[in-house]
Amino acid sequence: MSLYRQAGRASGRTLAIAAGVALVVGLAAGFAIGRASAPEPTLADRVADLRAKLGPAREGIELSATEYEQAVRDGRVVAPTEYGAAKADVERAAAAVAASRADLRALDRDRAARVDQSLAALRAAVSRRADPATVRRLAVVASAQVRVASGAG
Question: For the chain, what is the total number of helices (H) and then of strands (E)?
């Protein structure tokens, strides 16, 4: 057995480690180059993304009025399941708006405030079991406010 290794020979383990390090460095460099050359989203892209995020808000507002009309007569709940669904739809709409509030404010603070006010009015009308026509009118206003605030209308 020799005490000395022959020059120029690398062990299998050393080659595997070197290959692994080269792979990691190559992946990191590729990722960095890819990110550096990625285009920044335009304002139009961001507004389109905001509109998509607010889709559940518009749907929830529209559904709440439909469910509510089936649930309340003369200030009394006649269909508890539909009434619960109407309340849940309003909350879903409010949650979608809350998640996008910073973007709405960045576009227009006043419009964002009007969205919040119209949703609060709709929520209050549903909670106090207002006339279905009133809830429908408030839902139309809230939906329009969401559209306008998101630049859709």
Answer: 7, 2
